[in-house]
Amino acid sequence: MQTYFKENGINHRLICPYTHEQNGAIERKHRHITEMGLTILAAVSLPIKFWEESFVTAIHVINTLPTPFLQNKSPHEILFKEKPDYTRFKIFGCACYPLLRPYNKHKLEFRSACCLFLGCSLNSRGYICLSPEGKTYVSRHIVFNENVFPYSTPNNVFKTYNNQSENPPHNTTQLTILKSTFNPTITMSNSDTDYVTDTAPLTSIVNDDNYSETLDDISQNNDNNHLENSNSHPMVTRAKAGIFKPKLYNSLTSTFSSEPSTIKEALASSSWFQAMQQEYHALLQNQTWTLTSLPPSATIVGCKWIFKNKFNGDGTFQRHKARLIAKGFNQTEGIDYTDTFSPVVKPTTIRVVLSHAVSSQWQIRQIDVNNVFLNGDFEENVYMQQPPGFETNNPHLVCKLNKAIYGLKQAPRAWFQKLSNTLHNLGFNSTKSDISLFVKFSKNSSLFVLVYVDDIIITGSSSQHIDSLITMLSKDFSLKDLRSLHYFLGIEASTTSEGNLHLSQTRYIKEILHRTNMLESRAQPTLMISSLRLTKNASTAVQDPTLYRSVVGAL
Q1: What is the DSSP string of 278-320?
Q2: In sequence order, what are the residues at sequence separation of 6 or more whose Cβ sits closer than 8 angstroms to the Cβ of residue 307?
Q3: CA gap 90, 77 in Å, rounded
Q4: Residues 114, 150 contacting (CB under 8 angstroms)
Q5: Could you tell me if 96 and 117 are in contact, meaning their C-beta atoms sit under 8 angstroms apart?
Q6: CB 326 within 8 A of CB 302
């Protein structure tokens, strides 16, 4: 090659060793093709041995689809000056029935058989079909059934043949996927021009409820027939008797009232008003503020009530929670606050400490500090308006805050400083790798304290020292001993019979689905099209930008 380059005046330039970012465009396109090819395999339950055909199909789709980088034209159109023929697009991996009469050795053999569609031929205007016996046919006389996928059916003749074959072409690792739904169309191609259908190039999601129910019935009947044929045990089960009950999901709205959005709605509900009274009395008991007149040069900070339903670790309703927060966005830097940064424990630190605790069979305890920000002290003079719904007879008085309150910019820092000083007085030290991890080592025990605002995890080699630490902290702060770790930062924790710690985010995911009204949505094998390119004006704006940002941030 070098001789050829020199003879033709070609300067062969190479990237620097181990500097793949210089070849960024090629690397990104390679990833694009790989992700799209694997997505096609997963969508139709094909094993990884068909990666070559899937990747060729992915490249064909990429080259024929419009792209905004080419003024909404496809690479095929730019190269050949004509629009591609989208009528030849069929769903990869669907069932197809090619005309086999020219290949038959006997005139009484069937003229067609169910084959597996593996894309379009690159050398001729035909389709590639794979028979259960492993023979490959290239034909243009084919009937497609894009609602049937041979590798997804229980009685898969292709799997049976591949298991009996002595020399399989590739690795037969099966991809594990979720349930998917495809648009059912049967199209026939018996000439150079195919009939135009409304089927999308690869797959399309069906929104019709009646059709969705029909698919569920068919899937359930197939599962029942497969169970009856494969299970020969004499025990009579509910499945054998034809008894099927739908799954009942925990509804987050059936056992409690919705969260009020205004103070007027909360005051009209006795349960929510009781929650507000509990919060208000706790603030007074803690001497959070002192009623006084507003100085002439001072600014006032507003406040509001927020309402939240609290749940147990299993998702059941626990209680109503009302919280008074200050409108910290009204504060002025240098007057109402100075420093605001407050560290929290890193996710990596949590995983390392929990892993070490489980492997050492240490006890893991969890405590929650009540009204955590009310424990913080600060030196600035902050004046807040009286809580809505609990104003005194003199509306001109304001609350001069003696302690931090939720919503103030310096409240998290004040609380962490107070807790940090308390732990230091008890002999704990902050680690250099994570300032929110406090450790204490002695000859008899080792203690670890993880702090994430008001959620605190305590673990160590001595259960007695853990109990002693919780008792000493309860003297300085009002806290709840939640005993063993069960729910922390949206993660459910449970101990298995073998002593391992099982972590799950089922409840957290259900809360997000409930917030977006997607609890009844169907599962899909992929979250979105891997090759999708988002543009600024490709779709309409969302109706609730705040909810959209909140959900994206929760993910």
Answers
A1: HHHHHHHHTT-EEEEEPPTT--EE-EEEEEEEEE-TTS-EEEE
A2: 259, 260, 266, 272, 275, 320, 321, 322, 323
A3: 20
A4: yes
A5: yes
A6: yes
pLDDT digits (tens, 9 = 90+) for 149-176: 888 887 777 765 555 444 444 444 444 4
**Is 151 within 8 Å of 159 (Cβ atoms)?**
yes
The Cα–Cα gap between 72 and 533 comes to 12
Cβ pair 401, 310 in contact under 8 A? no
Lookup: tokens for 259? 């969260």
What is the H or E stretch that residue 401 is in? strand 397-401
**DSSP secondary structure string, 145-169?**
ETT--GGGSSS-HHHHHHHH-SS-S
What is the rounded distance in angstroms from the CA atom of residue 355 to the CA atom of residue 374? 33
Averaged pLDDT of the chain: 77
Angle between helices 545-554 and 506-515 (to 10 degrees): 170
Question: Residue 472 pairs with which residues in a beta bridge?
Answer: none
458 and 367 Cβ atoms separated by less than 8 Å:
yes
Query: Averaged over 202-228, what is the pLDDT?
Result: 44
> Helix (H, G, I), strand (E, B), or coil: what is residue 21?
helix
Distances in whole angstroms, Cα of residue 247 to Cα of each of 44, 244, 293: 26, 9, 60
On whether the CB atoms of residues 50 and 37 are closer than 8 A, the answer is no
pLDDT, position 96: 93
pLDDT digits (tens, 9 = 90+) for 365-404: 888 887 777 676 666 788 888 888 888 888 788 888 888 7
Start-end of H helices in 331-484: 347-359, 411-425, 463-476
Query: Would you kindly state where each structural domain of the chain is located, as residue ranges?
Result: 31-205, 263-515
Rounding to the nearest 10 degrees, give the CA dihedral for residues 427, 430, 432, 434. 150
User: What is the strand order of the sheet 186-189 is part of?
Assistant: 136-139, 127-130, 115-120, 95-98, 142-145, 186-189
CB atoms < 10 A from the CB of 108, how many?
5
R_g of the chain computed on alpha carbons: 33
What six digits make up the tokens of 380?
């600035």
Residues in a beta bridge with 230? none
Which pLDDT tens digit goes with each residue over 462-510?
Answer: 888 999 999 998 888 888 888 888 777 777 787 777 777 777 777 788 8
Question: 383-384 and 300-301 as β-strands: parallel, antiparallel, unpaired?
Answer: parallel
Count other Cβ atoms within 10 Å, centred on residue 469: 22
Half-sphere CA count of 423, side-chain side, radius 13 A = 24
**What are the E-state strand segments in 75-202?**
95-98, 115-120, 127-130, 136-139, 142-145, 186-189
**Is there a contact between 235 and 127 (Cβ–Cβ < 8 Å)?**
no
For residue 45, the tally of other CB atoms under 10 A from its CB is 19
CA proximity to 252, closest of 524, 554, 519, 550? 519
